[in-house]
Amino acid sequence: MLIDGCSKNNRVGIFFFYDEDGIVDDYITYLLNDIKKNIRDLLIVCNGKLTSDSRKKLLEYTDSIIVRENKGFDVWAYKEGIEYFGWGKLSEYDELVLFNSTMYGPLYPLKEMFESMRKKDLDFWGITKYHKMPYDPFGTIKYGYTPEHIQSHFIVVRKSMFTTYEFKYYWENMKMVNSYSEAIGFHEAIFTKEFSDKGFTWDVYVNTDDLEGHVFHPILMMPMELIKNRKCPIIKRRSFFHDTADFLNNTTGQQSMDAYDYIKNNLDYDLNLIWKNILRTNNQTDIKNALNLNYILSSSSYDSNTAYNDKKIALVMHIYFEDLIEYCLNYAKSMPPYTDVYITTSCEEKKKMIEHAFRHMECAKLEVIVIGNRGRDISALLVGCKEFLLDYDYVCFAHDKKTKQVEPYIKGEAFSYKCFENILKNREFVTNIINTFNENPRLGILSPPPPNHADFYPTIGLEWSNNFDNTKKLAEKLKLKVDMNRDKEPVAPLGTMFWFRPKALETLIKYDWEYDDFPKEPNNNDGTILHAIERIYPFVSQHEGYYPATVMVDTFARIEVTNLYYMLRQINIQYFNKCGAGPHYAVVSNLHRNLIASWEPKLKSFLKKYLPVSMINILKRLKRALT
């Protein structure tokens, strides 16, 4: 069916929206503002809840809003939307547009897409499609494989199809959808084939036929190709927090970063629309992994020709050990001459020693502050320097570091080296850090990578250590609204040395910290409020609307790549020799199964000895459900 020129906007849209907190972010209104130019009427169906402010936002685009119980996913939201209009009312329109909030855009005006597709003789169409896959990863698709299909984030159905008996029957007999897998298997993956097999014609705006056999999921795995070369008007929200394992099962993990950079440098879409939404709704580790938020900066040249001498910069450094004063001074000299330098220490005698050592340092201001010896470097920053932190644009925080619990002491010295090198290598590197903050206004905190040598090796995988619960408790005390997951590592400065934008830590800085909030010496090596604060920094940043990231100087990045490659290779060799080679996801999955198998006999023996039969059966069913 062709849509003639005089009725080209005779469309009705059903927009499905879901947000756990019922908040309509600005990316939604940006999308609706454009779609309204191309349709006559709009119905918004919201699963779950909707705040009063968000309802007011949506009322600017339509008076027709349904807030329904959060069940049935998008499939039953569309079904209820169709029932709201009724078949008689729908027949007054030429096209029915079913679309949802799982995408950002438009990156290009939707008018271009509607005009292009209007010229095609079709019964239904969409923006992108998923290519045929010879298996069903969800276990819910009735065909036993995944057929080629239009993706359900945007499907347009013309009158030639939505007024038919087949279309009515499809929706009136839709099974209840109770999971994401069922939403795929009961609707998205079969809708296109169902109606194509009945003789209805279809197509997509972004043609990816040439990519068949190359990729199953083009919009997720090749977004820049679609956006840059095929004018795809959307990018999936999932691009910015998708499962890293699935990315690595298909690519080397470059896709979201490349697409983001292309949008940033070439299109007019406001990236704040993306940041505002993903920082509020997603885990910071997922965001960091999807966008590869690791900054590798030069120590030998400037990465930008722009100078930012107008920015107010501060170095805050805590020095407790007298024998490390000169060591700290050598790194402090990396700061630009317009820096205000604040040194905290524990007594007047050390203050005099520091003032003498730093007397020739090139800086705008030098002040040495005596603080109480309680809370170490954490209280130095949050109590001793609280009053002036928010006066600055960017602050570098460092401290002398001796890890005396690990012997020989060279191991702790190497940890200190890793922290200092990656925040204060030299003036070129520091200038590039300042430039990076200026060029990325949503960047809140830059931390060195965590230690992974010697006794610190378990840090990767045990980043929380014994501190998830106390960090979570602190987050509740600070009233942070962020996703905090025990199974996902914090993007935190695990040596408590980092650069930050004070605005990004405002909630933490303004909290009424006192020295008595911190434990007396001698302090425990783990599980204290100090270790909770060390991990809360990035979550405070996220709460304030800024993202945390990792930073490395180029010279240390050479070391880090060598170490990580060596460590991974040694683990792989041991695994491959016993279990055979395989891709990463298979190795991890097999390790998980093997570990469960090795413990199962011991577990069974314990259960038989100490638990009643009824409890054993419950645990067996739980195990089956989890695996």
TrEMBL record:
It comes from the Bacteria. It comes from Paenibacillus albilobatus. InterPro entries: RgpF. This is LPS biosynthesis protein.
